[in-house]
Amino acid sequence: MIDVINLTKKFNDLNVLNGISVKIEKGDIICVIGPSGSGKSTFLRCLNCMEDPTGGQIIFNNVDIADTKVDINIHRRKMGMVFQHFNLFNNKTVIQNIMLAPVHVQVKDMKKAKRKKLKDDPAYNTTKAEIIKNARENAIKLLERIGLADKADVYPSTLSGGQKQRVAIVRALAMNPDVILFDEPTSALDPEMVGEVLDLMKSLAEDFMTMIIVTHEMGFAREVANKILFIDEGKILESGTPEEFFGNPKHPRLKEFLSKVL
Amino acid sequence: MGNFEQKVEKFIEIFIEQNGYVKVLEGLKNTLIIAVLGLLIGIVIGTLIATVRVIPKYKILPRILNGFCSFYVGLFRGTPIVVQLLVFYYVMLPLMGVHMTGVQVAIWVFGLNSGAYISEIMRSGILSVDPGQMEAGRAVGLSFGTTMMKIVIPQAVKNILPTLGNEFIALIKETSVVSFVGAADLYVAFNYIGSNSYEFMVPYLVMAMIYIVLVLLISLGIKLMERSLRKSDRRN
């Protein structure tokens, strides 16, 4: 589904990614680990062009989204992202956070279909009220799933870190993405809140959501991932199933890293 | 102090019996129209300029726009407002062959002028919003412009509201020079009363008081607005 070919990224003269190639299939759960400064977050942020890649290709659903001529916004709708610092919209309530993008995108599609008189397009026959109603129902369903339906109308500043991150995850889910990128989703949380976020991610894994997760949670990676990438100095030094990866690490850098974190 | 009482009597006589109050109300109306519409135009222009200035500059178009905006801000901050009024009225309009009343000219010049100042205020407001907000908007597939309008600018405005209020207060006070292009504001009204009675002490005193009351009312309004915008801050 995502085919990364020889991805490179430079910040001025600093080479952060030195040619990363990896194939991600539908339903994959890929954990990316590595020491800090290794380029793993940059790799993740290049996947949805949050950082524009310097070179290489990212083929997502048969389109090279690293090409600057591509309308990246359309592809990002199918690529959710969850941040270390949650980044909920502070000026919107919890339910507005979840509804904003789906409503905006669908209303835009509807207006376009009406303007071009595309009668066969399903977007042609909807109305704004209907879109909002559906988005609200969906948002409430998502909030019920994470047990925060009673928080629908409060602002994010009143939530705990774990609650914020769970709302951020369902905000990404509300777009029905093909894949969700997680950028250290538990690193900014109090230890006691890590569990609730990891549990939600596990339940997504059980629903066969494709996920790419940059994380320091080795236990989680071992339990949930079907493939682990070890990145250092902007290269994938080793990749494999959790069994191979933790049971029989080959690269000396990975051995050293695991001996420090495990 | 008999002298002063006489002056007050004279003022009241002209103010009420010779329809001085009509002039004052007219002037007050013009002052407010110029300041309010000027502020609105300024906010629109300022927001646009500030947005252009924070666009990532990889492509050529944003760079050109950015250059133009820098020039604009430099031009309007580098000349006195009176000069701008005079140039607009006596140079630009005849060159373009357009006719405008003094009030219309004042509205546009104050709008263009405050746009330059508000752009800098707005830019600092936008920069004060966590960059993660923009990233989160882009990550769900919203465009730069949509994220700016729905997420970043509302938060920026909340942060700069006190400064924006100052700008409005400054505008109200600066409008007292619009008589240069023949717009009848508060100053013109009280000057008229003064000239008709050959007595300026009381009219100008009253004028000063009206300005103070206006500014105090605006400060109060800003305070109320700030309170209602603080809703989304932590408080539960």
List the helices and strands and how they pair.
The complex is a heterodimer of chains A (262) and B (236).
Chain A: E1 2-11, E2 14-24, E3 29-33, H1 40-47, E4 55-60, E5 63-64, H2 72-76, E6 79-82, H3 94-115, H4 128-145, H5 161-173, E7 179-183, H6 191-206, E8 210-214, H7 218-224, E9 227-232, E10 235-240, H8 242-247, H9 252-261
Parallel strand pairs in A: 3-8, 3-9, 6-7, 7-8
Antiparallel strand pairs in A: 1-2, 1-4, 4-5, 9-10
Helix pairs in contact in A: 3-4, 3-5, 5-6
Chain B: H1 2-17, H2 20-54, H3 60-77, H4 81-96, H5 102-128, H6 131-139, H7 144-174, H8 186-197, H9 201-229
Helix pairs in contact in B: 1-2, 1-8, 2-5, 2-7, 2-8, 3-5, 4-5, 5-7, 6-7, 7-9, 8-9
Side by side, the strands of the main sheet of chain A go 6-7-8-3-9-10
Largest β sheet strand count, sense and barrel closure of chain B = none
Task: Count every beta strand of chain A, where a strand is a DSSP E run of 2 or more residues.
Answer: 10
Write down the secondary-structure element order of chain B.
Answer: HHHHHHHHH
Indicate the CATH topology of chain B.
MetI-like fold
SS element count, helices of chain A: 9
| Poorly predicted runs of chain A | none
User: Given the C-alpha coordinates, what overall shape of chain A results?
Assistant: globular
Chain-averaged pLDDT of chain A: 91
In DSSP terms (H or I, runs of 4 or more residues), the helix count of chain B works out at 9
**Helix-strand makeup class of chain A:** alpha/beta
The largest inter-chain interface, given as chain pair and residues per side, is: A-B, 32 and 25 residues
> Which stretches of chain B are poorly predicted, pLDDT < 50 over at least 5 residues?
none
Q: Care to count the β-strands of chain B?
A: 0
Strand residues, percent of chain A: 15-25%
